[in-house]
Amino acid sequence: MEFTGERVIEGEVSADLFHEHISRYKFAARLLAPGSSVLDAGCGTGYGTYELSLNQLQVLGVDISSEAVEYATKRYASSNLRFETQDCSNLELDIKFDAVVSFEVIEHIQDTDGFLASIKPLLKEKGKLIISTPNKKMYSDAIEGYENPYHVREYYLDEYVELLQRHFSYVRIFTQDFMQGICVRDGNELAEVVYLDDAYQKEDSSFFIAICSDDELPPIERDVLFPLSSNNILAEKDRYISVLKQDVQARDSIIAHFKKSEQEQVEWNLALQEDQKRLMEELQFYQQQERHWADTKKLLEEAAELARKETLARDESVYGLRAEIKELYRYIELLKK
Predict the structure, then answer these.
(1) Is the whole model's pTM more than 0.70, yes or no?
(2) Closest Cα to residue 165, out of 115, 101, 111, 213?
(3) Which fold has domain 15-230?
(4) Where are the domains of the chain?
(5) pLDDT tens-digit readout, 168-182
(6) Considering Cα of 47, then 51, then 52, then 56, what sign does the dihedral take?
(7) Cα dihedral sign for 55, 57, 58, 62?
(8) Any alpha helices (H) in 81-232, and if so which ranges?
(9) Fewer CB near the terminus (10 Å): N or C of the chain?
(10) Strands of 170-176's sheet in order across
């Protein structure tokens, strides 16, 4: 299956992007008791659905893409996991679940109220919806001119909360961010995150994860941190930067090629301009020659006409002289007699 930007594929995306998505499933798994039944609405390629199944949960993953469902079924096989092709905006299931998870899906759906309304009948009495979406303020608003072609609508925090509260009595918001820092810890389980600054504002987080229910939500640990197993996020960043540098070099090479082609085009245009200039000069020369030849022809015609007239006049003069000579000869002859 080819990565198009719409669905994450394990091994085909950067580690940062994959960790960003899988951490939501790890967070959800912590909230559910072993043996719980879970629906993953909009499961994509199934990596997160499989993550839930590793925590002794009975999981069904559904997605509108039959290609994604086929891929997930082949790659993530487990006895407590299955996949079906379903349209999340019109779910058709006759079973109820302890929880429904739907991560980065609601922004792809046109009828969000219909989507949320269709989920409620699928939840057991104390069932929970765990649902996430990107923060519009830190996503498309943060990049001038950017627009995700797969998103129908994105949400600010207040819009997101208002939408969920129309359908659920209890809504609790968690925020998700990709953070870098230094972790000092002993061998015990991490129980709390202490921030190194006081600049945290939930409205400025990258993603919102909401836990929704019509039953009062139980206490939930305040913060959860999912560090990279290597404990070296900088090394991962360096690797990612190296990949980006390679992309930049490839693009620079393409740009250089186009610049070279552009320079060749400029040189070709200059050569054409020189040829055009030379041809115009030749044309002007021949036009001048043509005008000169026309003037010369006119002068020659005038000279010929003048010569013809002079010839006629001379011929008339000669004819007159001949007549006079003839008359003189006749007079001389008379005198001789």
Answers:
(1) no
(2) 213
(3) Rossmann fold (3.40.50)
(4) 15-230, 232-337
(5) 999 999 888 877 665
(6) positive
(7) negative
(8) 112-119, 157-165
(9) C
(10) 81-85, 58-63, 37-41, 97-103, 123-134, 207-213, 170-176
